[in-house]
Specification:
The protein is an alpha+beta fold. It folds into two domains: 75 residues, YefM-like fold (3-Layer(aba) Sandwich), CATH 3.40.1620; 72 residues. It has a four-stranded mixed beta sheet with strand order 1-2-3-4, sandwiched between helices. Helix 1 runs parallel beside helix 2 and helix 4 packs antiparallel against helix 5. The radius of gyration is 15 Å and the shape is globular. The chain starts with a helix and ends in a 6-residue tail after the last helix.
């Protein structure tokens, strides 16, 4: 999902079209609107019934994913938040990056929450988007596997 307009378009149709996607990612509010469930784990579980993987982000609370193997919850690294603009977009970028490099679901979530968390330390999405070298260094210092 990229925002409310897309959620409205998707919510008007059955969720079965999610079978055609590799992963559905939504924030907690979007997921609640799509599923009628306000608990992120429940909404991710409902979305996962319609596609292979569902990811629900919960801001400072991290993210939850549900796939055929079960439920994975990852907390977000604690940082001082200056501006959350663009954090969701960067979450998705890092998730896809980790997925394309063969990372398992937990590592995908950990890389994605890390990138999103690093981004909120600076004003505007552009200033917060660290480069691959800094992201990798931060990830390795936090025990993430190199990708």
């Amino acid at each position: 999902m990229t925002g409310g307009l897309e959620v409205d378009g998707v919510a008007e149709r059955p969720l079965d079209h999610l079978r055609a996607v590799r992963s559905c990612t939504a924030n907690a509010g979007e997921a609640a609107r799509l599923t009628g469930r306000h608990d992120p784990v429940e909404s991710a579980s409902v979305l996962a019934r319609h596609g292979p993987t569902a990811v629900v982000t919960v801001g400072e609370g991290g993210a939850v994913a549900v796939d055929g193997d079960g439920i994975v919850m990852v907390p977000a690294p604690q940082v001082e938040v200056v501006d959350a603009t663009g954090a969701g977009d960067l979450f998705v970028a890092a998730y896809v990056w980790a997925d394309l490099r063969g990372a398992g679901i937990e590592d995908r979530l950990r890389w994605a929450t890390l990138y999103a968390s690093l981004s909120v330390r600076a004003p505007t999405a552009f200033a917060g988007a660290v480069g691959l070298e800094e992201l990798s260094r931060e990830g390795w210092s936090r025990g993430l596997s190199p990708l």
